[in-house]
Amino acid sequence: MWSASTRTPCYGCGSKGFENWSGRTGVISIAALEERKGIQWVVQAMPKVLEEMPETRYWILGDGPYRCELEKQVRNLNVQNNVLFLGFQRDIEPYLAASDIALLLSWGEASPISILEFTAAGLPVLTSPHQPFPELIQPEWGQMVTEQDAEQVSRAIIRLLSDAAVRITRGAQGRAWATENHAWHQVARQYQTLIGSRL
Questions:
Q1: Which strands sit side by side in the sheet containing 57-61, from one edge to the other?
Q2: What is the Cα–Cα distance from 176 to 118, expressed in whole angstroms?
Q3: Can you state the percent helix, strand and coil of the chain, rounding each to 5?
């Protein structure tokens, strides 16, 4: 079973080192491994993605109580050669740099910091249509998909992986958005404005 202290895999699924997979076409999710984070919907879409793009790799960063179920799903779908569970990582920059698309098909979020991490890294983003994403996601760099529709999720992934120009453009737009709205100096200015309005 999964253990928070040891962070060991339940089934030994996806145990190859990341260094063996870097340089491949990659999609990434960074989240606590809980059902509401929607990792299972990306896994469900992977067989359809692999039919057209068999070299695609899905990197999952994070740990949690849902990991056993996810590993079981990966094995049942026979995609264990293309899905890597990387566990908790303090330094996520190398994994973001190696990725082409970021996904967060979750629900029940407040203000997910991973969206800022993805956009700051210049990655186009796919999310679910649940709050707060309708108010957060900009069409210039992100796209919402119905998370339980494996066909829709897979087509969105394939479309982005197949078009480098679109990926680069969306990634640049996302980085510009993150820099303009969420850089430290910008956040400080927003706080100063808020405090000043209450004096």
A1: 83-87, 57-61, 26-30, 101-104, 125-127, 142-144
A2: 12
A3: 45, 15, 40
Cα 6 to Cα 18, 59, 68, 83, 116: the distances in Å are 19, 20, 14, 21, 29
Cα gap 2→65, rounded to integer Å: 7
Residue with tokens 């956009």: 119
Task: Report yes or no on whether pTM surpasses 0.90.
Answer: no
Greatest distance between any 2 Cα atoms in the chain = 61
Give me 186's structure tokens: 């910008």
Q: Which of 77, 121, 126 is nearest to 106 (CA)?
A: 126
In angstroms, rounded to a whole number, what is the distance separating the alpha carbons of residues 66 and 71? 9
How do the domains of the chain map onto residue ranges? 18-198
Looking at CATH, the fold of the domain delimited by 18-198 is given as: Rossmann fold (3.40.50)
Which residues of the chain carry a pLDDT beneath 50? Answer: 1-7, 15, 184-185, 187-188, 190-192, 194
